Amino acid sequence: MPSEVLLGIAYNCASRKEYESFAIKLYEAEETEKGLGGL
Questions:
Q1: Cα 36 to Cα 14: distance, rounded to the nearest angstrom
Q2: How far is C-alpha 10 from the geometric centre of its chain's CA atoms?
Q3: How much is the CA Rg of the chain, to the nearest whole Å?
Q4: What is the rounded distance in angstroms from the CA atom of residue 10 to the CA atom of residue 22?
Q5: Residue 27: which of 1, 2, 3 has the closest Cα?
Q6: Is 11 in contact with 19 (CB distance < 8 Å)?
Q7: Which of 12, 21, 35, 36 is the most buried (most CB within 10 A)?
Q8: Using an 8 Å Cβ cutoff, are 10 and 22 in contact?
Q9: For residue 13, what pLDDT band results from cuts at 50, 70 and 90?
Q10: Cα(20)–Cα(16) distance, integer angstroms
C-alpha cells in the first residue's frame, strides 16, 4: 500500500497529534529502509 494511502487513512482516523506521530514513524521507517537498501 502506498505511503500516501496510509497517511490518508491515518489522517482520517486519528487526531492531529496521533497523525503527526504516525507520520514521523512512517518517515523513520522509510529512511531506515533506504539506509539498509544502500548497503
A1: 30
A2: 9
A3: 11
A4: 7
A5: 3
A6: yes
A7: 21
A8: yes
A9: low
A10: 6
